[in-house]
Queue: 3 jobs
Job 1
Amino acid sequence: MEFSIAALTDADVPAMVDLCREALDLPDDAAEADQIVARLRAQPGIGFAATADGELAGVVLGSLSHRDDSIGHVDLIAVRRDVRRQGIGRALLARAEGALAGRGAVEVLLAGNPPYYAWPGIDVRYTPAVCAANALGYEQDRTAWNMTADLTTIESTVEAEERLAAGGVTVRRAEAGDVPALVEFARANFSDGWAGEVSDSVGRPGAGCHVALRDGEVLGFAAYGSSRPSWFGPMGTAPAAQGLGIGGVLLRRCLRDQRDAGFRQAQIGWVGPVPFYASAVGARIERVFFLYRKEL
């Protein structure tokens, strides 16, 4: 099959979203194709489109790491189902690798680039993508997982919030004026990536953040929707405030927002403390991702 590759333009975006709705094999991903594309294109990066017979056949998006600009990320690659196994995906990936190398990258990751990402890595159910990564010289170096929370069974936080209030802790929805303090708290206790995700969760449609404070000091936060509307995270509590029940309250408040938005399930993304989420809301490990790297 003959095809050509050119830089992705704004004019290509509507067709790109349509392609992703068809090419992303997992229904939950296809349903959020427009949000995934918008989130990934919100950061500086590279993008290429493959065209065959006058129609969009495949796309790739990439970026430099927000922590280390010698590392490149492939954020999304999708090829239309009816033109797969024609070399389009391989050619798009090679073009992205070259572009990232031209910007100074010495290695490329097939992994999420917080705060702008749609997946931690390649979902293991995208078996052709896993096979392609191995065939094209990428090495698996990490595994990540999501947990799924049933939003129809989320318990009330009223009593827990009353107990916290008796100890001087206020829990409420974060507002625009809270962003500087939240960003400072996230950077000091967690990472710049989390700071970016929290900042992007406040005041944006399909996203939100709740915060716990005592005497005006941030003790913890929980956010959702920064990467995708159905995804929860990140969430963090100050070490000195752990054990008070703040995390469970913040988590359930966010999940309740997502339930009220019409979701029956939420993905708790890139999970660390599995036992906490399993105990707090009965979440279960479901999506598993392989993360890959390749030296250029």
Job 2
Amino acid sequence: MKYTCLHSKHRSLGAKLVQFLDWEMPIWYASIQSEHAAVRTKSGVFDVSHMGLFTLAGSINAFEQLQRVSCQSLTNIQSGKLVYTFLLNESGGILDDVVVGQSEPGHWFMVVNASNQVKLQTWLRTQCPDLTLTICNAHDGLIAWQGPDVTQLVDLGKLRPWTHEQQTIFGHSVRVMRTGYTGEDGVEIWAKHAAIQAIWDALMALNVVPCGLGARDTLRIEAGLPLYGQELDETITPYQTRYRRLVKTHAFIGSDALQAVNPTETTMVGLVITGGAIARTGAEILGGGMVTSGTRVDHRSIAMARVPSAQAQQAELQVCIRGRQHTAMVVPLPFLTHA
């Protein structure tokens, strides 16, 4: 079993700990509902140190190799911006969705999904032989501080959404990224273990609410954000997601295969299920389609679904939940209006 540098703090706070992949992680502290509400109304902090923290270094040739594995252009990372992109296989399927940035010329960093760390280590070293890849989790951690109160409690200066810079937070020099996975404003902080621990303690002293992976999931569903293994996998192309715009015109692995794909065959929709039953991953939709993620937020049962484009034009769909049909209203994503 693996443990993050905050594991002892989770235990002292009474977190409900569960096995997530190879990690023991907090699923909640008080409750999923209260932690969800804290992020929407105040702020909450998540330990996401299980995410893969990669650094990459190399020459200009190495950057061209990095550009080749990304369906989104990485040119903007040279100006302090962060890029959200998909890494694809030769068939155009999604190997992972990642965030990429540049720390200095010839040096880049990448945040990858915990479930794909081993796969991507091998794949990146094969596809980018001129890049030196280092996995930083043994000495670095990552926390996500999210919610409307973040900017009231810390001065982010001129840091804009989807940019990053080295800043001093609570006395520690850290990489601050104006990103998140909740639909709220906030930051993700990448730093050495000692700094992560100290910043966590400082946030607890400010009464920032500690949040587990349960609330992280309900928040991201409400914000219409994808989870690898549910909305994304190696059989799904970018054209079957909400992120078709990530496919650019440069040559990248999978670009040839995508030319043979109908980009409008299916689409993602939001569903609000009447009666309150929760449509879980895999629930079938009559006439075609499938629920990819579902939950209940504020007494409302919501779900994301991949459906044929014709189905998306209907006002209502029938969802099969535990052997019974339930009516669901079709709504645009995200459910959260300001996400």
Job 3
Amino acid sequence: MLDDVWAGSSTCSLSSDGISVEKMKQEFHKAWPQCPEKAMDFEVNEKPPQDEPVEVAGVTKIKAVEAVGGKKGKYFMYAGLAMIMIIFELDNSTVGTYRNFATSDFNQLGMLATLNTAASIITAIGKPPIAKLSDVLGRGEAYIITVTFYILSYILCASSKSFDTYAGGYVFYALGQAGMAILNSTIVSDLSSMRWRGFAYNILYIPFLVTPWVSAFIVDSVVHGIGWRWGIGMFAILMPFCASFIIITLLVFQRRAKNVGLILNERLTIYSFCSRIDLGGIMLLSGGFALVLIPITLAATATDRWSTPWVDALIVLGAIVLVSLVPYEKYLARHPIVPVRYFRTMSVVLSVLLGCIDNIGYGATHTYLFVWSMVSHNFSPRDAQFLTYTNGVAQALSGIGTGLLMYRYRTYKWIGVAGAVVRMVGYGVMVRLRTNESSVGELFAVQLVQGLGSGIIETIIIVAAQISVPHAELAQVTSLVMLGTFLGNGIGSAVAGAIYTGQLRSRLRVHLGPGVSEDQLTRLYNSITGTLPDWGTAERTAVNQAYSDVMGYITIAALAFAVPIVFLSLLLPNKKLGDGHNLVQESPSSDSVDEKKSHI
């Protein structure tokens, strides 16, 4: 392992034996973009070529942390990541479930898909700005901003007296989730080599193998005890406490690095800060996607809105804004959030597309899964939680296995193709086995198959994109792939919401008969708490069948989206995974070493 942290990508391998502080000092002014000499040149010269990215502060700081911390520092960072992932996954598997009961209590269950989609959009478009902030300010500083969003969201949601206040709090929650997801993924990728990347990335989700089962008991106890408000509110204490471990570790080692001269203080002007984070690009990227997806979501949950002219106008305007992002990033942005060369990089383009389309199916089939299982199979909140998160547990396990296969065979394309095929077969089976007549075993088996395919695909697309860019762009390319996955999830929720809104009332009327009142239809449509007929009655059987009809339409839509995933996976470049950090900065010597190893 090379001792020089700036020499190519050998620094951040999982097998690193340490980084030389002295060597960093010698190379410092070549690597640190914010020292006076560099800053002066930067202001005078033209914009640096996009194909020659400059090392960013966030990357320099994390390398400096490795340098002064050594193995001990790396262990502290992994321990901090473990703490924050435990609370992150516990939050994911409880607060999201309380959303079902919150919307039901506010008699707004029909708005569940809209809330899910809005949260997915905010989480998606929030990732690139937070990734840029972590590059400009540092990883630890970005964590502090993220935890602040979380605390605000918990307070607003737990104390909400109306659906509007709850939804407002959920906006901050979505921003907190965006930041936590991208920062956790970025740091583990900072510390790992190409060959280990898939495994290291999925090691983050080991807590998810336990938290869904624990959280199911927590949710069941909270819902039937202290209530969902207290269930959310307790995270206002738990989240900052667990996050403090990784934050303190990063800040303490950054301070030590400053003391030995590895990090220089820089006073950013408002202009230079906005330039560094590419504020214009962020506004175009986030605004364009918001203008496209928000009207689609609103129209999907009220079918008559498709006939209103403002829906089409906003979608067209959003498309124009997104198209204008390309010339802006090419000719105006000094630190582009989406470098134009990404559009010519097949690995990046296909990773974003695969993540988006794959998550359309996931978002569609999971938006109403919790509600459907409680209605059509009389599941308790605990059992519905088990069913919902079986997919995620299988995904975590298959992701870890995929990472080990990638380490062993130094490749990923055909593993990804196999995952795409499994995913498509899983949706085909789901059409047959996700009904009100399916057994409990069949319901869980479908979730396991889906999770297996999803774990493979999600691992492949992250690694394929990350190894195709230099370390300085690691956070932003990761955020773009995650942008694609969360946008897909949002579109899937919108699809589910459109089907739920457009079909449930009519299916209830068909199965309950012409004598059913509009008031009863409205109550069954908007809430599942205290409105369902008793289990076993003819009326309840009719309601079960209506909900299963709607779920059947949703699974068919998901199957249609699964087909192009197979074809896209076949187009992925079959690149070799070396022991460096990425293929762009891998030195010739490391390539030759990898070549020799591959023949052993």
